Amino acid sequence: MQIYLDYSATTPTRPEAIAAMQAVLTQQWGNPSSLHEWGQRAATVVEQARVQVADLINAADPASIVFTAGGTEADNLAIIGVARLSAVPQHIIISSVEHSAISETARLLEMWGWEVTRLGVDSQGRVSSEDLQAALRHNTVLVSIIYGQSEVGTIQPIAELGNIARSHGAIFHTDAVQVAGRLLLDVQALPIDLLSISSHKIYGPQGAGALYIRPNVKLLPLLTGGGQEMGMRSGTQAVPVIAGFGVAAQLAAQELATETPRLIQLRDRLFSQLADVPGLIPTGDLIHRLPHHVSLCLEYADGKKLSGKTLVRQLNLAGIGISAGAACHSGKLSPSPILLAMGYSQKAALGGIRMTLGRDTTVADIDWTAMVLKQILQRLTPDLYLATR
Question: What is the pTM of this model?
Fold first, then answer.
């Protein structure tokens, strides 16, 4: 029995997206910048996908969608693109639970002389609006707060935070890679200036992403050249993956009303079935939470015989794919920086696991996974189980 529960890492490309990609590769393979018929067929594909992605986030103008090679490039374009507007280094604000595409880019800005404030979070991983208000300075040009945290599933109060940034005159960016296609996104209603999304998180192909740029928001491109993507991302567009991205976005929007509540039910079922496991505690905000996301922490992890990585390997042997938060460098585990930022101990931060659900996840998958995980933990920590009997 094979059960995939790592949909936050990547999703399987859906057949409709694959069909769209095959059509481009065999029939619409022209360069979309060319003026002849072959080029214009490809250009039509790109513009159709732009409309489909715009519709997913309710962007009024499809031209506000800039295609990139993925969420990481979209994040980099947002952060560095804004920074490059300033002749001298200024100040930006991020959270302490950002994806590395943001946190590492902020670290790069610091090397260039920029000041970066990293907002702390509470034990649930949420940013305080008061902390953001207090961190704003006269030279704060950008605030970037992740919408849905990929490791612990917490959703930030984006509308509230965006309004604070906007009232100060700072540009507000959010990494919505984990949110797009899972929760309703409306950039016309939300105070968001820049928003990043990724194709392979919504059952589209890997290698495509997009940055939404609100009209009249300025930033400079990372790549210069032929001026494709409204001058924001030069280089011949990857038409096949863009086509697949567009189809995936269209179908995600159509299925949102039914798929989101289904995922919430499955998510809560898994949390419930694991609630009585000794030493295994939920992480992240259980109310303000991504609908497909289950994250837990081994309270008594030791980083050697017992860690999140241990459970990943053990479940993999049982045919179940999950992920862990702690990173392994040169054979040595490093505690999850996200869990550390939320106040967990060094040991507990070695024991984080994430199970993320998707279109193919069933009730039977949930029940089987819970049973297998319990058996693994009982075998690995027999003394702990005996102590709780």
Answer: 0.95
